[in-house]
Amino acid sequence: MSGDGEHAPEAPGDVDLDKPSTARIYDWYLGGTNNYAVDRHFGEQADRQFPLIKPLAMSNRQWLGRVVRAALAEGITQFLDLGSGVPTVGNVHEIAPGARVVYVDYEPVAVAHSELILERQEAGDRAGIVRADFRDPDYVLDHETTREVLDFSKPICVLMVSVLHFVGGADNVPGIIRRYRWRLAPGSWLAASHITTDDAPAEGAAQISALAESYRDTQNPAWLRDKAEFTSWFDGFELVEPGIVHLTDWRPDSPEVLFPDLEPESVRPFYWSGVGRVG
Ligand SMILES: C[S@@+](CC[C@H](N)C(=O)[O-])C[C@H]1O[C@@H](n2cnc3c(N)ncnc32)[C@H](O)[C@@H]1O
């Protein structure tokens, strides 16, 4: 299910209330309220199909936080968050209050909510949101908001967190990544996380595969990839320690007790993660 020969659909035009959207479903997984009945209905079904989905979404969100803090520790103070979603918890500009941040999403509710948050928090000229399909790197990188907020002569951390499984094989993921990399200064980072079943127990693998099938009926069909394919996307980057690992193994910083009844190990096999540095 790698999506070879398949394109993800075009960017949504307006708010679509007939089909669930991954931005709003993910918001529901995280306990947010920026979702509609159609998204909640899908989310409830997903939760029954694969009961680890909510903790998995939360552990992905926590990984994003660890990456942002690690980038700051390396002196990177600029972030380009591609497929930033509905910012329910732990947004980059909140984790990194002094940083410059551009959010990019193509889902209208995600964009509207980001605009509201940035306005309310008076993020000013140090953070902005671009409504765009990140499969068009030139549009994103040349957008006036991107140019105003980010300084491309200095390192930028590009975040592709839990978004590439919504990009089809025919959309050419390595080509998209390359076109971002070409425009980045040395020392920049690319951070990505992606759903997988490689090391999953049979029951979990079957459940998440069935869930990926269900996403075919949403605005955002999803594809699973294996470690070899995910790793190949970092060609041309130096891998940052600890390399390509399950995201719970990427620089864990504290025991995260979010779901007290859950074995922390249970979510481990379902995501690959990695950070590459531009040399
Ligand atoms: C599962 S959410 C992930 C949100 C956030 N990156 C995180 O990990 O917490 C996926 C987001 O990617 C967005 N997305 C998917 N494909 C996209 C594309 N081609 N261009 C822009 N946004 C996209 C969706 O609208 C959604 O908000």
Automatic annotation (TrEMBL):
It comes from the Bacteria. It holds the Pfam family Methyltransf_19. InterPro entries: SAM-dependent_MTases_sf, SAM_dep_MeTrfase_SAV2177_type. Coiled coil: none annotated. SUPFAM superfamilies: S-adenosyl-L-methionine-dependent methyltransferases (SSF53335). This is S-adenosyl methyltransferase.
